[in-house]
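Second attempt. The first submission of procollagen-proline 3-dioxygenase had a stray character pasted in from the spreadsheet, which I only caught after the job came back as garbage. Lesson logged: always re-copy from the clean sequence file. Corrected sequence (726 aa) follows.
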Amino acid sequence: MVFICRHSSSSPATAVGSASRTMALRSEHFTPYDFLYYSGVRAYYGEEWAKAAELLEKSIQTKEALLRTRRQCHDDCVASGTKAFNKLDSEEGSMWDLWALDWIQQKAECLRFCIGRSVAPTGQLPVSNDIEYEFNTRNPYNFLQVTYYKLEKLKKAASAAHTYFVANPSHLEMRNNIEKYRRMEGVTEDDFQDRETEKHWVLYDAAMQHEASSDWLQAAEKWRACVNETLWRIDECRVQCEVSPQLLPEDRGVDGVDGAFEKAAALSLSLLSCRQSCVTQVATRPGRISAQEDFLPTQLEHLHIAQFKSGDVSGALQTLRSFLLFYPNDRDSLDNLQLYYETLGGDAESHGIHPAQEIAKYVNQSLQEKSLLYFGVENLNFTFTDPDLWTPEDVVPESLRKNWRAEKQVINEKIKEGDQIEEVDDSGFYAGGSVPQVGVTITMDDDALNGTNRVVLDGVMTEKECDKILQLATVAASLGDGYRGRRSPHTPHETFEGLTILRAVKLSQEGLVDQSDTRLLHELGERVRTLLHSYFRSPSGLFISFTHLVCRSAATGEQEGRMDLSHPVHVDNCLLEPETKQCWREPPAFIHRDLSAILYLNDNFDGGELFFTERDAKTVTARVKPSCGRLVGFSSGPVNPHGVTAVTRGRRCALALWFTKEKLYRDMEREEAEAMWAADGQSALKKDEEEEEKEGGATVGRNARSHAPKERSRGRNAVTGRKDEL
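This time the job returned cleanly.
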């Protein structure tokens, strides 16, 4: 079995056609894709829908054409300077520096001429990091889906919405829009096409599915194709590192780089670092922040097993030999190698099977690059983050090995934790403490709820208290509160209303709601905090991070045939990935949340049950039916994925609370409300401040809602404030 890696984007037979396509970029009217994008966004906000669609589509097409042109020119210029390069190993090699410069100059001249005849000078300029971010997150499709909707081109709108949603799976408005498109006349499932499909992930998922059904022949075919596609994508990325505009070292603000050799070294190290980062880019799924570790070796491991099980032992042997280039001392792999030799009869021919040529080339090239980069780290103050776990220790200089080993150990431990079958809750909470309130009973504990750090308490509120808060919600809750006004943030079949304590206090001061009801809403947060702090035996302080009175109502005429959930399965402080059973504690998740709670107010509705699942988001482990005064508390981490079943009739109301051990992330809106009461000469029902100081943490405060980690830290006026919900 031989891996076939597509090194060139076109064969000689198609090179002319490719050149004619890219030549179209060069004209008097050529416009850089970043300018086209900005112009399209301006037209969008000006509601010039046809113009916006044209400009946004052109920006996408122009960028694709530019990348193709650069790749084609790279391939066309491979042979440039070969004569000078060959002299480096000849008798004339004593002038190696001049021959090396001759080779570099000829290569540069070829690339400049090739790209220059296809792309105007303005199109060759580097774009800003902001523009790179917009295209990497597929934001042009965010604008296009609304644009096409306004133009009544629903099929194109559905495709644009799906394309954006694939890379932004937590974007609730887009999910709602997709559900609306599905119900529109003339739109079919085939219209939801990903215009930016990354083929290696399609093949990866297909291979996993064939494995799951024990279809080993098909699995082997898909894994082989996946390996080839992954190698090709890495190569494409590496080529772009070479041919894309690069800033000179002095433009980067590198201090102390004065001589020609130092500058050349800095630029070459940047190039090598860019090449090394390609495996991370290719191994990161759309919509994910973290790359899949050991992406290529993992594929090879799956492939050799599938080949063996499908009867292709020779192919399995070659693939396993390829895998051992990454991990030559892996015990299980060496045992499998012996098994494959024995299965083939142990003849000389089987021992002559070598690793796939493309894999050997990839490993050798990568190791040489790493050696140069680590030399730069040790001696030239260069910064390099190794993207691979398989890097052998002897590549790393002795002076750097201690830190390198420590970093590698941390990563390996995280991976090992993720692979553990038995869930371990590292939240620091220990269920089973006392319940310090008369009349409150433990209805369900960890055993009854089939999980860790979960509890259901009854009797937390009286019927009268439930009625008062329900009345407050009826009078003061507003549609879409807490979700930027989106009345249906989780499902189009329900409407969502919310109320925060600060808004309730402001309304009470204006005489629009009863002050006693507002005080009760505030006091319930402290009541829940006291109960859960005691029951979960928190060793440190526990601060309220956010309190939200929420009501979900079934939409009239929208319930027939419902298959969705009122709130999809999720984890409160990390991003759950059910396919891999990983939960990524990174933005945009609220990573500061430690403990979650739901205090129910009523039960006169259908559906709306809370349920817990395993990390696959499918296997339900426990269900909780709401009722007045029932409190559900649980640790906010990956041991407790949960969701809410559809509310198909009536209105479900509850008080949602989240708690944190870090005082830095306490709810500043709550404190603002308390300050407003104090200014009126009224006492707020809260814990003594000195007691809270004893319980924990920092003295600096900020609003955890508004300062929670965001997926994107930068912002630009040109593209903020979307109209992305239909």
